[in-house]
Amino acid sequence: MKVTELKGQTAHLTNLNNININMGRNGAGKSRFLRDIEEMASRSKQLFYVRYVSPERAGSFKRDGNVLTNMSDNPDWLRQTRAVNQASNFKAASAMLFREAETLYLRRLASTPEIRMDPTRNFETDRLSKVNQLLTNISLEMGNADFVFRSLADGQTLSPDAISSGESEAVALASEILYFFDTIEPAKFNILLLDEPDVHLHPDLQARLGKLIIAMLDEFKNLADRIAVCLSTHSSPLVCSLADSQYVSIGTKSFAVETVELKPTSAELRKVAPFFGHPLSLSLSEDAALILEGEDDERVWQQAARTSQGRIKVFPVLAGSVDQQGELETFCVDLLGTLYDNPVAFSLRDGDGVVDQPLEHRQPIKRYRLQCYAIENVLLTDPCLAVMGTTWEGFVAAAMKWVGENPEHPDRTLITELAGSDDRLRHKKIKKIRQLVCAVLECKKPWEVVVGQAIGALRNEDLANSNMLISFLGAEMVSDVIFRNAA
Question: Per the database record, which ranges form the ATPase AAA-type core domain (predicted)?
């Protein structure tokens, strides 16, 4: 059911894509435009499933009995109360929806063998981790009876009323997005309308929110012809975090003009987006762009920056391939000197089996190569194993036990080879078993979180000691990028 346009009574959105960005000045009527589309689509329930997220989202992210009663008694109550710019008790409803999203995911898991039989997939890795990728100082965890917030600084639980407004916004928005995707109706055209989702969010969180939307579309790409996310925004970090995706088109809403014609993002915008969309300006925060080859690397360094509590001052920029990494390096060399007095930027490539062949720096970019095959190989270092509560000897014992219990598993041979390796397969590709390593150790954390937490826990004094993690990453890179000793 491919839909190329959406109409309200007066609003008209043309050339629809999966992610549709509606930009415009204050007073241009962007909110009215989205609500007009929502009103008309909601009247055609046989054709459309539509959800609208209002721009001012009040309340706290905690379940409320009155909200639950209203939602249960009147199926249209939530839609009616949100059809305004300022929605009261918005976040309380989001908390209810996130709990429902957990139930929906578990039902999907039970009815989908390929998910159920995969030991690396569960609600925590597929859903909860996506929420936590938006958070810097706290985490959202599964408690005994409900979800709880926990401080990453001291491990104490926090009341939903005690977290910052930005964190509360991020959790509520993530819950709304996850709920929408987990309630998609394949027989209908599904529309998510996000009205200024960047409101009250730090620029860094705005960029991460864009990546969350793209990640969910990737997960549901088999239904791409039946999904449209439409958002209005003023945020350049949010736009630029979305702009390098094939899913995205952009249009402008002008005052008194009710037709918005969407156009796919240009190759030029996609190229410059990671830099101009860098939400924390180097001149303000001392963060520097860290150009990375793949999404796995990006997630690891995002987690490392969060875990370090501000000590690691980098903003990961995703290249997507080795070739594009080279193009971004060239672009950065040409651009940064015109923007900053003393520019600093970094680029980190996979080892890919190459040993003792350092890359030449291209000032102002300092370039490094991992001293192992790829970032997932770091998972087998002692500090990462410690994050999972074990040692190398403990892993070997658990691995051999797992091999004995799974004689037909396709990855049995590689796990056996790893357990018997003298160098922990440091320079060999282990991509297909990286999450399986966590599963063998009964660690529910995504492997990227484990590696990121270990990197984020490094201290400058570790450089003077024998540290396997630093050896795999490369001592020069750790010194320059993580601790800025040469900056």
Answer: 81-240
Token representation of residue 9: 């009574």
End-to-end CA distance of the chain: 54
Q: Tell me whether strands 227-233 and 189-195 are parallel, antiparallel or unpaired.
A: parallel
Q: How far apart are CA 344 and CA 363, in angstroms?
A: 9
User: If residue 317 lies in a helix (H) or strand (E), which one and from where to where?
Assistant: strand 314-318
Angstrom CA distances, 92 to 56, 80, 202, stand at: 14, 15, 22
Output the CA–CA distances (angstroms, integers) from residue 283 to 150, 210, 339, 343, in the order listed: 32, 24, 9, 9
**Which two three-digit tokens encode residue 55?**
């721009």
Residue 288 near residue 325 (C-beta atoms within 8 A): no
- 3-state DSSP: the chain helix, strand, coil percent, rounded to 5? 50, 15, 35
Paired sense of beta strands 157-158 and 5-7, if any = unpaired
Backbone φ and ψ of 390, nearest 5°: -150, -175
CA distance 393 to 400: 11
**pLDDT tens, residue by residue, 383-431:** 999 999 999 999 999 999 999 999 999 999 999 999 999 999 999 999 9
The 3-state DSSP class for residue 233 equals: strand
Query: What one-letter code names the amino acid at 104?
Result: L
Q: Cite the beta strand spans of 8-102 per DSSP E.
A: 12-14, 19-23, 48-53, 56-57, 86-87
Give dist(CA 306, CA 354) in Å, integer: 30
CATH-assigned architecture of domain 5-274: 3-Layer(aba) Sandwich (3.40)
Q: Name the amino acid, one letter, at 453.
A: Q
State whether residue 309 is helix, strand or coil: coil
List of residues 6+ apart from 120 with CB closer than 8 A:
435, 436, 438, 439
- Give the C-alpha separation, 435 to 120, whole Å: 6
Whether the CA torsion 282, 285, 290, 295 is positive or negative: it is negative
Q: What is the pLDDT of residue 279?
A: 44
What pTM value is reported for the model? 0.62
Reduce the DSSP state of residue 148 to 3 states and report it.
strand
216 membership: H or E segment, kind and range: helix 203-219
| 335-350 residue pLDDT tens | 666 556 678 889 999 9
Strands 5-7 and 19-23: unpaired
Alpha helices in 340-456 (DSSP H): 382-387, 392-405, 412-419, 434-440, 447-456
For residue 291, give the DSSP letter: E
Domain boundaries along the sequence of the chain: 5-274, 278-373, 375-472
327, 318 Cβ separation under 8 angstroms? no
